[in-house]
Protein 1
Amino acid sequence: MSAVVADRRTNVEKAVPPGSAAGCPPAGVESGGAWLTASIRPVGQICRCDADRLAIMLDALAGASSVVVLDLQAARIESARVARVVGRAAALLDERDGCLLCVGADDTTRACLERAGAVVAFVDPLGAGARAPLQIGVG
């Protein structure tokens, strides 16, 4: 870390101590605070070679968000490894009364996530086929 960055970081920590945002108590779902939502929109086949990158992203978002929206309208999951990554993030969110919401997942992706036991909520985009608007997947 450069000296300039370290100095800025120290000054920020002095002004706003870790764990408090300008004097506000830590918030989140558990404390009745604001909900923070994050969205991810992958494109193409999410294969096992992408699992590590996806895990880094989902772990960070699941730890800092109330809801993570995984928009799969332009993507597909067939890898069990990727499905387990999604399932782990969903479990982290679920433990904190949050949710991992999968939008526009095709039948193959839904089946893969269900086989992995991923506790996600499936939602079809407006105007999509005859599926129910919300289905909770519990594998």
Protein 2
Amino acid sequence: MSSTRLGTRIPTRTHSVAEPRRHRPPARDDHRDTHRDNDTEWLFAELARVPDHSEEAHRICARLAKIHAPVVEREARRYRDRGVAQEDLRQVARVGLMKAIRGFDPGRGKPFMSYLLPTMTGELKRHFRDNTWAVHAPRAHQERRAELNRFTTEFTQRHSRSPSLTEIGAHMGLDAKATGEMLGACSAYSALSLDRPYGTNEEGEETMLGDSIGAADPGIELAVDREALKQALVGIPPRERRILLLRFFGDQTQAQIAEAMGCSQMHVSRLLNSTLTRLRRAMLHDS
């Protein structure tokens, strides 16, 4: 309280101006992440309520993709300067995002980000593995390729010539033999295009390099795994085998399987997870 010249006492504020700062608001990034996670949880709950492939399901998936667009950009930037266009990296990361949205199971009680990041990273790494290195190179050489490119570019700009083998080795801390091996490995990063003209066929028509390469039978590499899986499936009860058939060969969702089996989606999820774990252990034991 305070007094005036007329003796009238008027109320005054007694709390400190700085008092609200005792409850400091979260950092901007933390607040944005929390808001994104809350929206994600709600959207997946909505997605579980609507029919698959419906217009509403597509709208929810598009909303999830928009919310996580910054994650796509961030993960794509992590792989820049590795010989792949940034827009291509964004596209690959978006593929990983859409796969994560389709494959995520909220019933497992894990946050979406814990499923999204490994899925997106795996998609990016698979892209580099399948589309950049022409032959297998040691990981140490792969990781130092960007460093070699930076040094070569800076040296050429400074001296108006390419660095020698000795100069590269001195910068990279390698002897002559190791430097030669690294240069050979890094040269495998960019292969010839399969659309490059290669010659002519018997009819005199131009052929491409890719025409000279035989197609690999993808079933050969899977033969061993299929045989092991066949043996493991022998011990699986008929009900669990039917769930596997509907999920992986019928491409049905857990909700559709639950309706066909006459049980809850949560029960289908538990049976599916336990069956896959059992099969995985059996196959690893056989191997």
Protein 3
Amino acid sequence: MKKTIFLFAFISTLLMGCSKDDDSNSADKYMAFITVKDELGKNIPNTTIYALSDYTWQANNEKTDFAEWTNITDKKGHTVFKDLNDDLLKVYKEGIAQFPVEFQPKTDYKEGIFRFVIKHQDQDFITKVIFEKGEQRHFVIILK
């Protein structure tokens, strides 16, 4: 009987320890629906867009080398960034931002700040977007 109880407790502990972390809180994530156009209003396909959280942007001297997300526009010039997250602790733990810095993870934030960078014809087009907590935004980036 003791072996059965011990075995049951062991298996229960093992299963609880192996459950996946609950990072699925959609209120802490942001979504960006982006269309890239030229100055004449024509959609630009196959364009790479880098997305960086505000922390990563500032910590890496405004370089795209450590972009947390990268997408390419489709043939209609559209792309979607899902699950954007500006949790500094997550960024630091995953090794995305390479900086020794003292930080306090944001716990009461009401907005997320991201930079979307497009490298096009030897120029960098940088768009700063401020999201309300959990917001989904649709916007157009015009390359001039």
